[in-house]
């Protein structure tokens, strides 16, 4: 069984050079995932000079570790969105997701992109009577807002008490889409640089610094999962979750080709894609706050148990497992647009479980912002909004408790007990050290203190990373930053 996502096609990916000069652009986009590439493409179409900087490879970050549901159905329920944003806001949240799906389809057709895009229904199903009551409330709201949903109190090819069908959603291959879109963007004049990490943004003009060059731009767009320089202390309004995924082959026709969620908390989600002699089931769930879960093998095992109960008696083969990180905001919608304190910076973050649709939407909203257009969407998603105070307080309390827990916890293991290829917090001469032992036995010793605000990192056995329980920073096994808000690697010992 592999640890890789279904979209891991590195050998086929295009390559772009690293930046090694000072260049000028109208807009510098930082981050080469779906949000960054879509934004660069849209701006180039609008006639802007764009430079796109990616610290690794295009689509190599969370875009490559998604399950690629393309849907308007938000993680926050319509009931929750209506409570926070009113009926008009909740309706616009779903409508803008639908707009993003249409935009993906339009671009695929216009640019002749082969990326397995398929329109299909999404099913939100209830496994029990409590979930069914929730579904009925959601159905009433969705219908009253004019969405063409259908509701049935019936099984769905497996044990359910009822389901809502949302038509005209989609699935695709996210890495094919984003890498092909990057090539189209380059043809439109976007200067794309890989292996080019932004190390700072200075000056009122928006100068982006990298190790070997600079971009002088009027506007900087932060499309790096979580904005790497944490403008407006945005990390205090976001919680990072780890989500686990297994891919299995199942017999043809057992489940309808579609995308599915249940009403559990945390919920399970899966998509079924047809192939010539089998179907592919990609199943995810077991979400927990980053750095606060059990051993990741436990979560993967729990997903397999769920699969067995979903399809009793059906034979399957698990071919790969992986995990990814999602970011939830304190009010349930992403932050897209301008920041409070950095006049020339725009951001796109907090996409929750809708990275594909909100990534595309962020390209439209931030393009319009740069073109001077204010829309109802830009107001709804503005990072300047002040909503979700309760969630803000909860995140503050989580930070304090996790910080304390990390300092007080004396649970360490001995160096000898760490298996090759694994990591652990080890006590060396009374000091806690984050140890990674390579498969050949080479030992990397790091400080376990997160370089963001000092919490203690935890080893992630599935992703082979050091994860911070406070704001979700993730570090490579050798200490380099994988996900912010931390910007500096773990200190080597
Ligand atoms: Fe904030 Fe680690 S991510 S302390």
Q: What would you say this structure looks like, in words?
A:
The structure is a single chain. This protein is an alpha+beta fold and 493 residues long. Helix content is 27%, strand content 30%. The chain contains eight helices and 25 strands. The protein has helices at 34-45, 78-111, 129-144, 174-187, 296-310, 355-370, 376-380, 389-408; strands at 2-3, 22-30, 50-53, 69-70, 118-126, 150-152, 162-171, 191-193, 198-202, 207-210, 214-222, 238-250, 259-262, 269-274, 279-289, 317-329, 335-338, 345-349, 422-428, 431-437, 443-446, 458-460, 465-467, 474-476, 481-483. The strands form four sheets. Strands 1, 4, 5, 6, 7, 12, 13, 14, 15 and 16 form a ten-stranded mixed β-sheet that branches. Helix 1 packs parallel to helix 4 (174-187), helix 1 packs parallel to helix 6 and helix 2 crosses helix 6 (355-370). The longest helix has 34 residues, at 78-111. It is globular. The chain starts with a strand and ends in a 10-residue tail after the last strand. The mean pLDDT is 91. It binds FE2/S2 (inorganic) cluster (FES). Residues 450, 452-455, 468, 470-473, 485-486 line the site of FE2/S2 (inorganic) cluster. The site of FE2/S2 (inorganic) cluster (FES) has 12 residues, from loops.
Overall radius of gyration? 22 Å
Strand content: 25-35%
Q: Give the overall pLDDT as a whole number.
A: 91
What percentage of residues falls in helices of 4 or more residues?
25-40%
Largest sheet: 10 strands, mixed
* Number of DSSP E strands: 25
Give the structural class: alpha+beta
Estimate the global geometry from the Cα principal axes.
globular
Regarding quaternary structure, what we see is single chain
């Amino acid at each position: 069984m592999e640890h890789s996502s279904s979209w891991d096609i590195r050998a086929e990916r295009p390559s772009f050079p690293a930046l090694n000069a000072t260049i000028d652009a109208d807009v510098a986009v930082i981050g080469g995932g779906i949000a960054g590439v879509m934004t660069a493409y849209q701006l180039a179409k609008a006639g802007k000079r764009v430079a796109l900087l990616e610290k690794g490879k295009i689509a190599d970050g969370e875009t490559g570790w998604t399950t690629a549901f393309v849907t308007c159905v938000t993680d926050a329920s319509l009931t929750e969105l209506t409570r926070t944003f009113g009926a008009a806001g909740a309706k616009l949240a779903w409508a803008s997701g639908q707009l993003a799906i249409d935009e993906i389809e339009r671009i695929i057709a216009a640019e002749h992109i082969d990326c397995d895009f398929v329109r299909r229904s999404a099913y939100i199903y209830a496994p029990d009577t409590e979930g069914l009551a929730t579904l009925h409330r959601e159905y009433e709201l969705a219908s009253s807002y004019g969405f063409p949903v259908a509701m049935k109190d019936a099984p769905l090819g497996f044990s359910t008490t009822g389901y809502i069908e949302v038509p005209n959603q989609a699935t695709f291959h996210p890495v094919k889409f984003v890498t092909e879109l990057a090539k189209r963007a380059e043809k439109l004049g976007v200067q794309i640089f890989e292996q080019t990490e932004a190390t700072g943004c200075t000056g009122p003009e928006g100068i982006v610094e990298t190790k070997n060059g600079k971009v002088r731009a009027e506007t900087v767009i932060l499309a790096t999962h979580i904005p790497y320089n944490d403008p407006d202390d945005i990390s205090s309004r976001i919680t990072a979750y780890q989500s686990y995924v297994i891919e299995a082959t199942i017999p043809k026709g057992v489940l309808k080709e579609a995308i599915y969620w249940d009403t559990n908390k945390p919920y399970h989600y899966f998509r079924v894609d047809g192939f010539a002699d089998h179907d592919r089931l990609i199943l995810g769930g077991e979400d927990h706050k980053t750095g606060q879960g059990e051993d990741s093998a436990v979560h993967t095992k729990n997903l397999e148990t769920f699969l067995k109960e979903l399809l009793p008696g059906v034979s399957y083969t698990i071919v790969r497992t992986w995990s990814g990180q999602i970011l939830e905001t304190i009010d349930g919608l992403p932050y897209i647009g301008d920041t409070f304190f950095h006049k020339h910076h725009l951001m796109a973050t907090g996409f929750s479980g809708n990275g594909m649709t909100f990534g595309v939407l962020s390209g439209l909203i931030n393009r319009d912002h740069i073109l001077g257009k204010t829309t109802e969407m830009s107001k709804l998603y503005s990072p300047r909004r002040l909503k979700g105070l309760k969630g803000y307080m909860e995140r503050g309390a989580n930070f304090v408790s996790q910080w304390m827990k990390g300092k007080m916890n004396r649970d360490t293991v001995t160096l000898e007990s760490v298996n090759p290829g694994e990591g652990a917090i080890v006590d060396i001469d009374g000091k806690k050290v984050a140890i990674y032992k390579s498969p050949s036995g080479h030992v990397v010793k790091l400080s376990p203190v997160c370089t963001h605000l000092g919490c203690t990192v935890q080893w992630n056995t599935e992703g082979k990373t050091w994860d911070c329980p406070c704001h979700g920073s993730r570090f490579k096994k050798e200490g380099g930053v994988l996900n912010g808000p931390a910007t500096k690697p773990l200190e080597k010992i």
